[in-house]
Structures are given as C-alpha cells and as structure tokens.
Amino acid sequence: MTLRIQTLSRDEHLAFVAARPSASHMQVPSWGDVKPDWRAESLGWFDEEERLVGAGLVLFRALPKLKRYLAYLPEGPLIDWHADDLDRWLDPMLAHLKRQGAFSVKMGPPVVVRRWSADAVKAAIADPAARRLRDAEATSHEPGAAEVADRLRRAGWRQTEPGGEDGFAAGQPRYVCQVPFAGRSLEDIQRGLNQQWRRNIKKAEKAGVKIERGGYDDLPAFYELYAETAERDRFLPRPLSYFQRMWTALTTEHPDRMRLYLAHHDGDVLAAATMLTVGEHVWYSYGASTSRKREVQPNNAMQWRMMTDAHELGAAVYDFRGITDTLEESNHLLGLLRFKAGAGGEAVEYLGEWDFPLNRLLHKALDLYMARR
Questions:
Q1: Based on the domain organization, do 167 and 299 belong to the same domain?
Q2: Would I find Cell wall biogenesis/degradation among this entry's keywords (predicted)?
Q3: Which of 43, 292, 301, 340 has the smallest number of Cβ neighbours within 10 A?
Q4: CATH value at residue 233
Q5: Peptide bond before 128: cis, by omega within 30 degrees of 0?
Q6: Does the pLDDT at position 166 exceed 80?
Q7: Where are the alpha helices (DSSP H) in 292-333?
Q8: What pTM was computed for the model?
Q9: Residue 217 is part of which domain span?
C-alpha cells in the first residue's frame, strides 16, 4: 500500500490531532505561529482510499543567503512508528521536503524506549556507583523501540547524541519526567507525592499562599520572575514578546491550550508557570520564581494546583518536561530531577532526535556551525 503526502489546511491538521488521545504541543498548527523565524507547513499522509492516516508540523529554517532549508519536525510526525515498512511513511516525506528546498531533515519520533519509576530514580540518585540515569536498571522497556531505531539507521537516518554533560539534546529533551494519571484518582496521585512535597504543600497553605489563574495581562508579572530565574540559573531568557505570541497563538486555537498560574502571598507574586494541554497530555512548560520568601513553598503549592487542574481536565499524563541524565551531586540540575521525581514522576527516555542529510555538504556545514556556537 502506497502513501501520498500533501499539505493540509490548519482545520484538517487540527481535526486529525483532536481525534487522537494526545500529540506533542509542538505538533499542532498553532506552534508554527509561535516560531516566526521559521516557515511552517502542515503535512498529511493519505492512504489508497484517500483517508488521512498521519500528520506532521514541519518548520523550515532558511540558510543565510541561500534558498535552502533545515526542515524540523519537533516531537513528530504523528505516524505509525511501529509499522514494519516505516520507509513507506518516511520516504514520501523526504521527497516532499527535498522538493521544498530542504537540505537536511530533523525529527523527534514520539517513541518511548524505557521508563524508571519514581522509586527507581530515587534509588539511582542514592547509588554512589550510578553516574548516569541510563546506567541504572530501568523499571520497564517499551517493546518495539529498538526495532524502530534499527529501521531508521538502515534507512540512513542518524541519531543526534544528547549534547553536554547534563544529557540535554540541542533540540528537544530525550529524557523527561512524567507523572502517570491514567486510571488514578487525585487521592492516588497525592499519595504518590513524597513526604517533602506533602509537607511543603501544607506549609504553603498554612502560610496563606494563594494560586490563581492568570491571563495575557499577567504575562509581564510572569516575565519579571522568569528574567530573575534566568539570571539566577544562568540561562539566556526568551523575550516577553515570545510568551505574548505563544499565548495569543495557542489560546486562539483552543482556549485551554495554554494556561498561566501565579502564586501570591501577601500581595507579592512569588512564582508563576505556564501549562500546555493537547488531548490527554498536559505539560508544565515554563516556570519562574523569586528567591524571596522561599520558606512559604510557593512552587510546590503551584505545581499541586496545576496537577489538580490537569486531572480535572482528564489528563492521562502530567509532563514535567526535560530532566538531566547525570546523577552527579555536583550538577546543579540534579536538584530539579529530585523535585520532579518527588512529585511521583517517572523518568522516561524517548528515541531522541534523528537527522537525514539530503545534501551532505550543506548538512556538514550546518553541523560545523552548530558545534562552534
């Protein structure tokens, strides 16, 4: 059976995503509006009966002075990754993207490789012999993931190795922390919190911390804390306009696609965070906090409110997004892993990002440019 690819309208793309239990927030049409430096296209896969059987959001980034593009499908596309004939899905995509002027294609198959339960993560952190999460014994392995990787390699795709000592990839994270919600009551999820989390939530409640939903007009208050967080944690912040554009694009597509939460105490905003929802998948997206009044524990209180609301929305998973792969005590990201695992989160390894060079010379030039950055 052959598959045909063609450009989809936003409505066709959105309808396909809406019919699925979940999809990445980077694979909905509105995500293209969040990235104005990239040109976006919605792709659809059609079978011989002209049924739409797959979809993907492609972002094109132009090379300076050349009409050649890097084509990127973050955490996508949405196709049958476990099909025996995976080439039947990917070959028409590569041919289409080559016609569009792409010199290289990058994608992130939404395929889970293995999982570590919250207890397994805790044990790995406590084990002095364990240096990386990947070295610790996983709680479960997803059947078929290794076969998908083998098929991609045989077809000429190259896996992007996570860069840096912290195990984060240059693109989207390969390791994430997720709290499973499917089939669990809110009481079950609360029991999954560790003692520190439960203690901090009670402390925040006793101190009078109030969690409120915000809107577009509250983004500057979020941003003030975000800029402080960026300075404290030594990362380059995105501009306020990015979050304003993100809010407008996502909430126009669906009113609950993006939410903003703020933790208040005695007239001060102490913490804020954004939450994204697609189907049954909910993400904690961006977080920000001040160093002031940390003793009233606004972050735990805010996360618990977000988890409660996610459960009310019917979420099957609450996703804390990227975590470090390193278990070294000296790494400043280990505290973040402890915080997320403390909420009952399991560590999840995805297949990572993969590249296909359509023009090897330009692809190699891009690799060299990225290595120098």
A1: yes
A2: yes
A3: 292
A4: 3.40.630.30
A5: no
A6: no
A7: 298-312
A8: 0.94
A9: 112-142+161-350
